[in-house]
Amino acid sequence: MQSLIKLSVIFCCIFLFACQGSVDSKVASSEKVVDDSVVENQALHAIFNRKSVRQYTEREISQDVLDNLLRAGMAAPSSRDRRPWHFIVISDKEILDNLGGQLRNAFFMAGANKAIVVCGDEELSDNCWFVDCSAVTQNILIAAESMGLGAVWTAVYPYDDRADIVRETFGLQKNIHAFAIIPLGYPLEKNEPKNKFDESRIHYNKW
Ligand SMILES: Cc1cc2nc3c(=O)[nH]c(=O)nc-3n(C[C@H](O)[C@H](O)[C@H](O)COP(=O)(O)O)c2cc1C
Questions:
Q1: Which regions of the chain are under pLDDT 70?
Q2: What CATH number did the domain enclosing 80 receive?
């Protein structure tokens, strides 16, 4: 009889433990659905984690990584699909130092491993090249984040003084405009993205 009671107690304990486990797993999985839908979505992960990074290690960026950045840039949408972009990849330390010394807004470029100058050709799109180049620049920044790189959008357009410096440095033809420079490198330290979500900026159906 005693052993029967013991057996029943053990059975009850196992049953209660199993029930608790299933409740826990239900709670966990209902929480996970929300978390995973964001974390497992690699595009959203890169978008939400992107931040401007201005300090870099000396680690070399490989040609494969660079190719992916350029491919990401060229995957951008463009007005009438004109794709009015060109890219100047700067890997020469002397040019990085030189430009960093001249462009106060991008002085940290001197410490970058590479930089990409995003350029627009007004002969391919006279009124939209800078809008298209914007999409290109953002694509590159998100791709950089997704590959563990640090990057930052440094504006050339619409500042004539900066544009002149870049034009002079690379001998750009008249129809080619430097739009932005993206210094690149592996981040020196962990930088946190800002949370910019602001519900007050959202308007449904009316202002
Ligand atoms: C159009 C544009 C121009 C920018 N120009 C510069 C720049 O010249 N130098 C710089 O250090 N950062 C520049 N930034 C980066 C911004 O300062 C940065 O995006 C902003 O502070 C928000 O921070 P986050 O990128 O980390 O979210 C520019 C960003 C944009 C979109």
A1: 1-39
A2: 3.40.109.10
